[in-house]
Amino acid sequence: MAMNVASSSGGGGRRGRRKPVVAEINVTPMVDVMLVLLIIFMVSAPMLTVGVPLDLPQTQAKSLENNDQKPIQMSVDIKGKVFINDAEVAINELVPKLKAITDARGGLEERIYLRADKKADYGTVAKVMGLLSGAGFKKLALVTEADQG
């Protein structure tokens, strides 16, 4: 006959041999979240730099060379509103605000890019160009899209 005899060492055999507590931070979930955020920002970043939404006319003109400095962009939307970069400006405040910006950057020789919606009122675009020319700005470029046809 067989008998089970309990050992007198405390029973079970695992009581005295516990693993020490691990005091390290598990960074794997944090790395996963950071990679997902990186991908989201990489995809959404080009969409954030659009500026004023315009439907530009298409031409076969060649593109201008870029300099290191971010150009001043003026926009005229379909409703006739005028923008300097992304800030709306009243037409009577256009020249003083633009002169303040160009004085800090490069004076009247600063290149200004004018973007106008193809359905914008021609009179408004001509008025903006006339104001800029009358104020002494010499480098005005019209922005268009490359012709797809």
Automatic annotation (TrEMBL):
Domain of life according to the entry: Bacteria
Which one Pfam family would you cite for this protein?
A: ExbD
Any one GO CC term of this protein is: plasma membrane
GO terms (BP aspect): cell division; protein transport
Q: Which InterPro entries match?
A: ExbD (IPR003400), Tol-Pal_TolR (IPR014168)
Name the membrane topology term. Single-pass membrane protein; Single-pass type II membrane protein
Q: Which GO terms describe its molecular function?
A: transmembrane transporter activity
Protein name, please?
Biopolymer transport protein TolR
Source taxonomy: Bacteria, Pseudomonadati, Pseudomonadota, Alphaproteobacteria, Hyphomicrobiales
